[in-house]
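Notes to self after the call with IL:
- keep both proteins in one doc
- input above output, always
- annotate only the second one for now

Protein 1:
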Amino acid sequence: MAKQRRKGREKTLRPKIHISCEGAHTEEDYLNILKDKFPLDTYSIRIIGQNRNKSNPLNILKYHEENIIKAGPKKNYLPNDIEVIILDREEHNNRSLDEFEPLIKWRDEGHGKRLLIVNSKCFEFWLLCHFTDNPKCKSTSEIMNSLRKIWPDYDKKLRRDISKEEIIDASNRAKKLSSFGDIIESEVCGSNMYELVDLLLEIESNEL
């Protein structure tokens, strides 16, 4: 019985990767796929999800921070915990660069323990990277049309499995297409979701 109690205590004290996202369905579905494909021993993945009421960048940050406070010392928020925020750049730069500055500051103040993931023009661009080397992405509608040619029944809910190999392929493709700076400062299509994938691969390799 004593061994069982120690095991249970060790499990609750594992550091977490706390992830907030803008989308209510697709992103959360995808994050659950990541949890399944990367069953880590030393970290647990906590999906905070989306603020259903306000989805501009600053409110996404506020919602994330409120939920981090709820996971504070009494909930075993540990020094090695990692935080991640995922959101979109959106089409035609209808989100100004100024809106992202508080999130960039938040990331930089985390000293490597915070990731800011931005998808341009939408999260579906990242999904498209799982299946093609040269995603067509002049507009959100072009991304959606290209994705549905490969995934005809796609409707914001991920009703098909995505393999670990496809996730790694998407990461390698996205790295070649655009940098975080390009995504933030211009209308170029891109996604730095590969930073989250790289993090999971790094943690996984350290566990082997």
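Protein 2 (the one to annotate):
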Amino acid sequence: DALTHLFDNPQDYEYSTRAHGTELIEEPCLNLLGCTTPGWIAENQGYMIKGGFASRTIFVFENKARQRRMYYDDIDLADMDRMEEELMLELMASGSIEGEFSHESPALRDKMEEWYINLEGASTEQTEGFISRKHSHVHKVAMLLSLCQRSDLIITPTHFETAISLVDDIGRK
């Protein structure tokens, strides 16, 4: 329930426990990368769908392995360590970025608004909630794409178009 509520970015969110009292989170913006199995989702689909969590989630999974290998002797472990260190530095730098995202231009903002107004999709009872939140998913993916390339919190047309493509691709699988 808390994750579902936080996804919608309430102005303030209060959480209380007996031991720690009340905690106030101002302007929360929740993004979560988690893992589970299709079996767990199937067993809990009633609550996930009716409670609204599934429509706020992009499920990414594979039915079969992309590559089957037992041995990875050809991997340069020193290179892997270097990449891990670079990734950690990038994640730390990204974690220190603060502020609001903006659009590269008013024309891009207008284009995104027009896309949202004209957004339609065939839906079933199970997918209706996701389609109604597709614009949120696209916007969040566009922000992540921006963060991957720059630190100025500016969304470009390429970020927006790539985000639409990625979310559409996930929806087709």
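Annotation: The first helix runs from residue 2 to 7. The chain has eight helices and four strands.
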